[in-house]
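Retro notes
What went well: the complex prediction finally ran end to end.
Inputs used:
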Amino acid sequence: MTADPPRFGVNYTPRTGWFHSWQDLDLAEVHRDFTALAGLGLDHVRIFGLWPLLQPSRSLIRRSALDDVASVVQVAADCGLQVAVDVLQGHMSSFDFVPAWLTSWHRRNLFTDPLAVAAERELAAAIGAAVAEVGNVFAITAGNETNQFAMPYHPDPQNCSPAEMGDWLDGMVAAPRPALPEAWSLHSFDSAAWFDDRCPVIPAHATTIGEATTVHCWVFTGMTGVCEPGDPLLATLADYQVQLAIGAAADADRPVWLQEIGAPQPWVPADGAARFVADSLQPLLTSPQVFGVTWWCSHDVSRQLVDFPELEHSLGLIDERGEIKPAGRAIAELIASAQDIVRTPRGTAVVFPASDTSTGAGRAVTAPGGPVWRAWQELRAAGTSAALVSSDLADDQHELAARGITDVIRPR
Amino acid sequence: MTADPPRFGVNYTPRTGWFHSWQDLDLAEVHRDFTALAGLGLDHVRIFGLWPLLQPSRSLIRRSALDDVASVVQVAADCGLQVAVDVLQGHMSSFDFVPAWLTSWHRRNLFTDPLAVAAERELAAAIGAAVAEVGNVFAITAGNETNQFAMPYHPDPQNCSPAEMGDWLDGMVAAPRPALPEAWSLHSFDSAAWFDDRCPVIPAHATTIGEATTVHCWVFTGMTGVCEPGDPLLATLADYQVQLAIGAAADADRPVWLQEIGAPQPWVPADGAARFVADSLQPLLTSPQVFGVTWWCSHDVSRQLVDFPELEHSLGLIDERGEIKPAGRAIAELIASAQDIVRTPRGTAVVFPASDTSTGAGRAVTAPGGPVWRAWQELRAAGTSAALVSSDLADDQHELAARGITDVIRPR
């Protein structure tokens, strides 16, 4: 299990120019942003290059773009921050950044086309090599929620079976390892991997590929139809997803990283953001497997940039003028008391039916609003913070003991 | 009519890094390339920015990207070259470069969406303003063959009627004029505008919007089904298209600019490229309305870049190592003798049925292989270089006189 105390970081959304700032990289601005973030007590940033800038041709990985990523990593080091680097962006805040060699006349399946996949692995390896020297990169992620490109509701979905996705993820996670042998190499995905049977990233991929399981928690997708905006129940989603990630893993000690969580308006009202931070994070930080939390995001998207979903302009811990917001102060307070967090396994666990390890079929039973969720919430309402555990582990006393589980509840 | 002698230029495809070189702009390399081109006797270059680099957000036109375009224009001036600038790329050599704010989750119709169109006009105006000061920009074009995005065979076609396209072109051509009052402001399109009734850019747009009519001549699209690769007939297409552009314009003196023509393998064998240059250009350069020729392209696309149609690696006047190719020497010879070209109207003209001025319907009758083409070729085979003239002009003796036409041939 991961070490105490939990780690706290932020997904870095540059204050000036959002990710378009890569094209006009100003390290002084990065330093300004990172200094402010370090000042909140955060220990790491997750950073995101843009794919078309890094690899504008299938055969061209720009040296200067790699150097830019490495320079940002160095600035983080100068500010006392560790760094997680994502490779394929890919999808960012409703925008898709896909290079011309994969689109339109050159459309290739980014998950299954052999030439595309080879090029993506080369990029992952090149980014790993570019950032390794600084020494503060603790994780590299294949890309930000790359599963979104394979969802049927995407405007231009890429067909990919769970088996094909597993191969793709294996390759992407393996590629940067030689350059970063000490770092985690991971993948990320939205909650569809946990709750939506149409998603080719399945719980088995989440819990076996890479050194830790990542969790992205967004109430606007996870809680639609379960409760209304403003409901205090929204703040329980993160703990639920984290417990699900712990309970789905065959390895009882597998770390879980809450890699994205944010307080999106109007689901979370502006004056409720600080409380949402504390209410979302405090419960889950006690679980021994929790590596840490990386908040989404560092800075509000500037109003000078348009076409974003409205909520993206208010997700920051810091506003577009550089002022720390209530959510920023709330996370700083949480960090200040993080030494006092007691990591304790939960004795009571709700059993959920294991999903198919080849297809993910059956996973939707764990979605918010379903029977597993209701049983877990009933315990919570009665004062018990429960774990979750997969049905294929729940009959094994060694497995339960390894997790500190003494009571199992089987919802009907 | 345009002044003697005709102008000769080249579409600039940077020798190192193709258009990806904008991201790592090295003005010394541009200077090297332009020096070589000026050495062939060329008087201008046509240059192409990449839209996602210039305008990565609908509300963000990057100052530094505009400065880069202006710097390249300045290097051209330093090398004694004039410049034509294209705004929206858009489509380049099989690749589409479209910013994220117009694709995927943010797909908008680039021709009809009011917010998109407003942003595009802003970019056209901004580019015009950025390059005006140098003083050597003689033309600005809305974009490279932007009609391709509206063709039904495009992988993701944008619906656009001829009327909507006319409005769009009017706006795009008007936008940079205040900044460049002395320059031509134009639009460009492939031969579908002349020959394909599905194309929303119609002959009336070609011959009335902007100060001159542009012609792009590609034998691999224009001559499919008409003759085989290697046929000497291929070299007649450019003259035919130019005569059609002259004969379709109500203004007898409207300049025609052969803005793109290349010698694509295997249609034109490598050892036939030099001859194709001379055979294609010599006939048309005598027409008084011909402003000049801009060859496609300056430099072969490097073999280090992949996924291009094979022919793109051999279209240059100069190869990827900087060696001048036979086609480059051929155009240099043509330029060296350009002073001797006698501009003479053609006394014999083939009448073609006017296409509908609102829809372009009927234009396909002029396509290579059709009755107009055959009549024109028969005259050519008999030793007569004929003009073409639209049926709505052919009964007006003043119109015919203005064009120097004394005999009209009406194909059955």
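What we learned: The interface with chain A takes residues 17-18, 20, 23-24, 52-53, 56-60, 62, 64-65, 94-98, 100-101, 103-107, 154-156, 304-307 of chain B (CB under 8 Å).
What to try next: split runs per interface for comparison.
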